[in-house]
Structure formats: structure tokens, C-alpha cells
Amino acid sequence: MKKLIFLLSIMISFSCANPTENVSAVDVDAVVVDIVKISNDFQSAYISQDWETASQWISEELGTTIFNSNGSALAVQTEEQVNTDRGWNFGTFEMSNHQVFMSSDMNTAVITFDADGSINFNEGDQNVPYATRASQTWVNENGEWKVMHSHWSPRTNSQGIPQEN
């Protein structure tokens, strides 16, 4: 009988314990730093048309979409879309002013930032100023961050990427 009472008291102790004591806390600052880094890395790969690197942050199951800063239709970011000859390239491209907003379960993040640089046309003007604002939505898929959607728009009195022909 003593063994049964002892066993019941242990079971009751564990069931009354604070469940959050055994759960490791998420380091929000570390997650934010990680999201900013992977956003920069993804965007660098995307603008340099490096699909192999960019695709590591795109879910094979969910894919990703983009609204470009030229007002064109919603595009699915695929290898073909990323590697298409645009007729121009970025001479310079720099992201700044990152802000990260996390969902309460820490599995979805929205990051906003500015992008500044210049565009060089294959047959035409060089160093054309570029200034946009952007947002990206990232989801944690099985422990890995994947970009689901990006939205870019020109900042006031600025221009984004060129119109597609």
C-alpha cells in the first residue's frame, strides 16, 4: 500500500508541475537576427539570379510569390522566373531599416525593410537610382524558415524595377 501511495504522490507531483518549466524558451532576439540574415541572403541570391542558393528558402510544398515594384502581376518565384534575362541588372543593392514582426507561436514572421541601389540596363542607361520598400512573410516549416510572399513598392518620389516588356 505504501508503494501505491508513493507512486500516486509522484504522479500527482508531476501532473501539477508547471509545464513551462521543461519547455525551453525561444530566444526572440536570436530569431529576429536569423530572419534578417536569411532575408538578406535570400534577396542577394535572388537578385544575382542564383536559383540554387535562393531555392533553399523556398518551400517545395508551398512555393513563394512576389509582387514586384513595377506593378506587374503576381508572380510565382520559380527557377525560370528567377533566371530570366531581364535586360538589366542591379549595379548596387542594399537592404536597411529591417523590422521583424513575429506571430505569437513564433512560426510566422513578417519583415519590412528598405532597399536602395542602382540599375544598369544592358542596352542603355547605367546607375539608374532604385529605392523601394518591401515586406516578406516567412514561415517556419519543420524547423526551417521559408519565404512565402514578398511585396515590393517604390518609395515616394522613387522608382522600382523597370516595367517588363
Tag the structure with descriptive keywords.
alpha+beta, 36% strand, 27% helix, 165 residues
Structural class, please? alpha+beta
Mean pLDDT: 86
Residues in helix, %: 25-40%
Total strands? 6
- Our count of helices gives 4
What gap, in angstroms, lies between the N and C termini? Answer: 85 Å
Shape: globular
Along the chain, the helix and strand elements come as: HHHEEHEEEE
Q: Note the beta-strand portion.
A: 35-45%
> How big is the Rg?
23 Å
Described by strand count, sense and barrel closure, the largest sheet is:
6 strands, mixed
Please, could you describe this protein's structure?
- By secondary structure, this protein is an alpha+beta fold.
- It has helices at 2-16, 28-47, 51-54, 79-83; strands at 65-67, 75-76, 88-102, 108-121, 128-141, 144-154.
- It has a 6-stranded mixed beta sheet, covered by helices on one side.
- A hairpin with a 7-residue loop joins strand 1 and strand 2 (75-76).
- The termini are far apart.
- Mean pLDDT is 86; it is low at 19-23.
Tell me briefly what this model is.
The protein is of the alpha+beta class and 165 residues long.
Element layout with pairings:
Blueprint: H1 2-16, H2 28-47, H3 51-54, E1 65-67, E2 75-76, H4 79-83, E3 88-102, E4 108-121, E5 128-141, E6 144-154
Parallel strand pairs: 1-6
Antiparallel strand pairs: 1-2, 3-4, 4-5, 5-6
